[in-house]
């Protein structure tokens, strides 16, 4: 039997917050957070701006198309026939994205405010992960972050079909502002293998663990597999911040997480190399990590 729902964590709790977050990453790979510090009016305004951008003419939206997989504007394709999306591929420099879409001063203001607020939240979660393992420092200092806007064009014909196929995220952490009104996110319970709904909880933000976090945690974290399923014929929006990885170094488990009982499982990982291998091998549910196993922990070696 699947467990009874993903954890909901109050970020204002006085004691044990870091341990609770670490435990949620290990046991579920996803959790919801209350009292996250992002103003509710900003969440609502950001959703409105996203809807406005998606309503732009097709020729304007296509100005943000990228030749790189997972970046820029995407539109409907056979694997995601109802999904449309934009991305700001470096949240420290959103001006080009706004310029290409001819964003209004008000839209720019909301995007900039939202980026700062959600990036601050990611930083707090990262520091709590470090604290939970007794590691000093700011985990995401100097990291690349990407923000993606998603619109699911669900209709009567799409009910009972897939909006996004089952996958794990190739990033470290995902901060998800999902749709308060439309369900559809489902995750795989690592204990039972069953799909568990992650229903909307107004006022909360979801956080899920990606492949890179599993490597960083030396295998402790669950890089949760998830999908979006169409349950009703309603348009669904989500706004996602991805903590991708460091700008100028590889990701590896800190020394505090490696010992005789927990030998190093993975070689240091270059984020761009990892994403390229994952795309080339078409391994979208975490299996790419097996190609980055340390020789001492497994006989699997890089072959690409």
Automatic annotation (TrEMBL):
Pfam family, one: 2OG-FeII_Oxy
GO molecular function, one term: metal ion binding
Coiled-coil annotated spans: none
InterPro entries: DIOX_N, IPNS-like_FE2OG_OXY, IPNS-like_sf, Iron_ascorbate_oxido_reductase, Oxoglu/Fe-dep_dioxygenase_dom
Iron among keywords: yes
Limits of the Fe2OG dioxygenase domain: 143-245
Alphabetical UniProt keywords: Iron, Metal-binding, Oxidoreductase
UniProt keyword annotation of Metal-binding present: yes
Domain of life: Eukaryota
Known role: 2-oxoglutarate-dependent dioxygenase essential for auxin catabolism and maintenance of auxin homeostasis in reproductive organs. Catalyzes the irreversible oxidation of indole-3-acetic acid (IAA) to the biologically inactive 2-oxoindole-3-acetic acid (OxIAA).
Family of the protein in this entry: Belongs to the iron/ascorbate-dependent oxidoreductase family.
PANTHER family registered for this protein in UniProt: 2-OXOGLUTARATE (2OG) AND FE(II)-DEPENDENT OXYGENASE SUPERFAMILY PROTEIN-RELATED
Name of the protein in question: 2-oxoglutarate-dependent dioxygenase DAO
Species assigned in the record: Deinandra increscens subsp. villosa
Biological classification of the source: Eukaryota, Viridiplantae, Streptophyta, Embryophyta, Tracheophyta
